Each structure stands twice: as structure tokens, then as C-alpha cells.
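Async update (no meeting this week)

Hi team, since we skipped the sync, here's where things stand on the single-chain job. The sequence we agreed to prioritize is pasted below, unchanged from the tracker. I ran it this morning and attached the output directly underneath so nobody has to dig for it. Comments welcome in thread, and please keep replies under the output.
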Amino acid sequence: KSSDGGSTLEESDSDSDSDDDHQSIVKHQKAQMQAKKQMLSQLMAELDKDPVFLKMKTSTPEQIKRFQTTKKLVRSPPRRYTQNIRGPPLTRRRSSMVGNVEYPDGLNDDGADTIRSRLTVRFTSMKRKLSNDDPAERTPKRRHVSSLSQPHIIIPVEDVTQEMLDNIAEHSVGKTYDTINGTSCHQCRQKTIDTKSCCRGEDCVGVRGQFCGPCLKNRYGELVENVLLDSEWKCPVCRNICNCSICRNRKGKCATGILIGIARQQGHSNVRAYLENLENETKLYS
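Output:
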């Protein structure tokens, strides 16, 4: 009996604890709700003081609807022409109507004269271009020479020494690269210390006439030793037969890459002869 009485006391204590916890949770929730109600009442009191809200509150539904529609119809003011406005864009059709150009209202005579003079200059320049459309009447384009280009140094034949001839590279594998003391080849664009060719043309610029031994032999079938001893030799660039990637891109052609192996398989000793043979064949079959 004593044991049963102890268990009933423990159960009653646990029930009382759970009731106390539940009551504390309910009190906390009621306090939170009361705080939210007070905050909401303060916000509504501040909102009642706003004139815009009072106007919307006192206005009828028809007035609110009218206010919303008028707000949507408000647009930015139209753009007005100013004194420094530029003329209309020049097209092929407008260029033939230079004398009948209509100018916007509010544009003074000085502004109209400036626009008319600009259109006249553009029209005359376009007319000159169209009249010079005949290939026979075209003036040859001058090749642009940059101010940063180095002056072309022509080495006389008398100054060519045996040491320079012995320093000519025969294969590209054994060349010594030097970015400071080396000279650049126009074909492979590599700076090496071996002797390069020298163009004797007065119109040659910079390092265009410098070709190393392997490039000049494999690409054009010429030897650097022979061209150094020739006082009238001109480089492939000056003869308009250069087949490097830069010169071919300027002519609208793609780069050839390493073609010496294919050229020799087709029975040619250099790339220039192989390319010329291909051009002749395409002309025959076209």
C-alpha cells in the first residue's frame, strides 16, 4: 500500500508541472499578441496623419479609379529641336536630294547652312568615288609605312666577308636563338644569330629583306650566299612573290604552313614553284 501511495503522489506532481508549463506558454502567447496589437495601433495612428492616405480614405471608388487611369496616361514631354541639332543621316537616296533637304522648324539659317555644306561635301566625295570605279582609272594605293619601321640598311657586296658567308644556317635545327643580339627572319619570324639575306632595293623597309638560309632555300629556291653577292637582288616581298602568312593574308589568301615536304613529293624543289604550279592548274581547269 505504501508503494502504491508513492506512485500516485509522483503522478500528481508530474500533472501539476505539465499544467504549469501549459499556462506559462499561453500567457507568453497572449503577451505577444497584445504587443502586436499595440504596434499595429501605433502604425495606424501614424498612417492617419499622412495626407495622401487621408485623401484616399475619404475619396470614393470612382475618384480612385480616375486617379489610377490619369496616372498611367502621363507621358514625357515631346522632344524639341534645338539650334545645335545634327542633320539627318546621309543615305544613298538622301545624297541625291541634297538641294531639296527639308529642315525642321526653329532651325536658323546658320544651322541650315552648316548642314547643307556637310551634305554637299559628302555628296561630292561619294560622286568622286563612284566616278573612279573604273579599274583602269584607279590610282594605285600607296603602301603604308609605319613611322616605327627601322630604316633599311643595304650591305654592299664589298662589305660581305667570308665570316658572314660561313655563318649562314643550312638547317633550321642548328640555329642559335637570341632575342637581343639576333636578327629576325621575315618568313619564320625567329631571331637568330646566323647571317640573313639583304635586299638591295631602295624601296624595301625594315627587315622585310632578311631571310634565313633554310627559309630562302625551301620557300623560294634561292641561296643566301648567292643573293649576298648579287648587287641587284631584291627580296620576295619587293618582287611580290612572298608566300609568308602575313603577305598572303594581305592578299586575301590563307597561310600555307609547312609545305616543303608536299612540294618535294610533287617533284618541286621549293614551295614557290609548287604554288605557282597549283595556280596554273586552277587557271587551266577554270
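Quick observations from my side:
The beta strands are 183-184, 191-192.
The mean pLDDT is 75.
Reply here if anything looks off.
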